[in-house]
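Appendix B. Extra example for self-study. Work through it before the problem class; the solution is given directly after the inputs so you can check yourself.
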Amino acid sequence: MPTKIEKDHISGQETTGHEWDGLKELNTPLPKWWLYTFYATILFSLVWVILYPAFPIQGWTGLTGWTARGALPAQLEAERARTEPMLARVREAGLQGTADDPELRAFALAGGRIGFANNCAGCHGAGGQGAPGGFPNLADDDWLFGGTLEDIHHTIAHGVRAGESDQERGIPMPAFLAMGMLTPAEIADTAEFVLSFTGRATDEAAAQRGAEHYEINCSSCHGPAGEGMREQGAPALNNQIWLYGGDRQSIIRSIAYSRAGVMPSWQGRLDPAMVTMITVYVHALGGGE
Amino acid sequence: MNVTRPGKAPVEDPQGSLYASHQKVYPRSVKGTVRQVKWAVLWLLLALYYLVPWLRWDRGAGVPDQAVLVDLSHGRLFFLWFEIWPQEVYFLTGVLVLGAIGLFAVTSLFGRVWCGFTCPQTVWTDLFMWIERRIEGDRNARIKLDQGAHDGAWWKKKALKHAAWLGIAMATGGAWIMYFNDAPTVTLDVLTGQASLTVYGFFALFTATTYILAGAAREQVCTYMCPWPRFQGAMLDENSVVVTYRGWRGEPRGKPEAAHGDCVACQACVHVCPTGIDIRDGQQMECIGCGLCVDACDDIMDRLGRPRGLVAFETLKSLAASQAATAGMPPGEARFTAGMAARKPQKVIRPRTLIYSGILVAVTALMLGAWLLRPTLTLHVERDRAPLFVQLSDGGIRNGYTVRITNKTRGQNTQLILVLEGPQGLQMLVQEAPLDALGRPILAARDDGISQWRTLVTAPPTLRLPENTPVTFRLIDAEGRSIAARGSSFLGPRP
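Solution. Structure tokens for the complete assembly:
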């Protein structure tokens, strides 16, 4: 307790009785209710600690047992209930109906963007720019399996070479060296011929020899002029877009050991409305077909 | 300035206690000029607060017809002719800046008129005290009631008072939510139990704050909670009109005899004070400048047949001049005449007031200019970040953009044509946009909202562009006049 309470002769106020190196403090009393309010906040925090998991002890859940994770299902349920009417409308309208209705289209673009970011961007990249090593760019104008709404929807729903749906996309390409179908020299010639589609062949004789191998081994899927074939998911070889690299070495490697991209079937994994919305979103990325 | 704490040190607190018990203030009723002005201001402000939400304002179909409305769910603030979007909140900030500077200017001229006459705390406390007087009687009756036994009459009066207070508090809380919701709708919703939890929450919050602050806390809000009294001393100077006690005329206090000054120590000024201070102690932080002590003292002077103005609105400079002129003079007519003659007129034009009015004019001009030049239709172009550009199968390069039109008007023709200004050969495709006769995309911006279009710009393989090419998107009307423009860039691979 302070003992040396004095009366300050200038202000007429009492001091608190505390002194620091000759400095004294005038006593300007705090209102008592203010103090009680402070006690009330302490009491509140005590009650809080007892009711909620606010104490840093392993396993202490508070009397209410409330956790943020425990509260999540209810929040998710509420969120589902909130979006369900619009999702039902998307399901009802179908693919083309959703794309044609301005309101549903705006909803699908917004929802599809989120769905794409959650499920697709890991391989196809944010914004669908793809990634080296066989993850196709979805914003360009080259479509392995077709770029119409129906085509994109089918690809997403059934997947690619994943063995999850009997309507899946894509057949495997033979590994011509590994399976002993072509010799290394023949593969080099074939690659030279493939380069000639885009005017990049440098050895006319080799390309001539390669044309024959191409005709027998490749043209049934990739087309006689390298135009590709969507039924099999065989990429076009006569344009500027190369899924696995368009240089000579990459092409030789592709022929020798084969390439085959895989994508899971999203039908059953995602709500049908979400598959529709992602389709509309992807179709809008680069304009689709 | 001599700053003291409110009231006198409570006797029950032990010496040296760091905490003071609350001393209840029992202000006496008073009649007079200042009181009349205060009543007029009080009823005017209360009427404004309670009635403004009911004022209707025709803005056309599909738009709220409430004159003053903060529409949080739709992100609009309606104030008479003005309509503000969330991103234009700086207009509101400007109004608040004007309010603050205006407050500084008024304070430097006329002291704490805001505190004493117009502050909501003062207005509602005054209203609550009026109710209290109607039910429990004036100062002496109330002191007697509180000191007496808690009998039936006590309970009846207290219950009636608190019920009346609660009623006003609820009306106040109710009016508050009307500024954020359509007044007739929300009133009906609240009464029928249909309103949202948020509405009931804020209704309860403002009911509680009104009841507690105006009923119980009163002068303690001004003394302990409000920051304004703490720094308003910086706005006041010796040329500001404040409530003063003319000590040169009143001292020494005592019975009205020749040997005494005009102050008869009747305590009338203390008894009417809503913050419970003695104005004769000089300028104090607790004084809210309401001037009720002026009325109280004038009344006593009238009865004694003495001139009014022993407690008066006066500048400290004038007070000091009178003080100096009458120094050493004995009480009497000679001292009174000398003191009154020595008074000085208020110096209105001084650096402080000039600076405040300069800022006021500048901010007003700035705000007005900003409002008048505010574009009602703006164009934004957001370039895709991922991918930065797309290579097409024929070797061409494509960039994606989101074109956004913010239209703050209603019912105007907003069928605008989007053109791209950049290197010859760039092709623009706006998804979902119809084309005009020249094949240019027509963007129909929706009323009072933001519309957006995904836009693809393609450079054919024959067009060799550097890594970064500046382009401009421009909106033109049918006559070809430029409405809005926004620059962006077209990216491609390093050549």
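Self-check: The mean pLDDT of chain A is 91. If your reasoning did not lead you there, revisit section 3.
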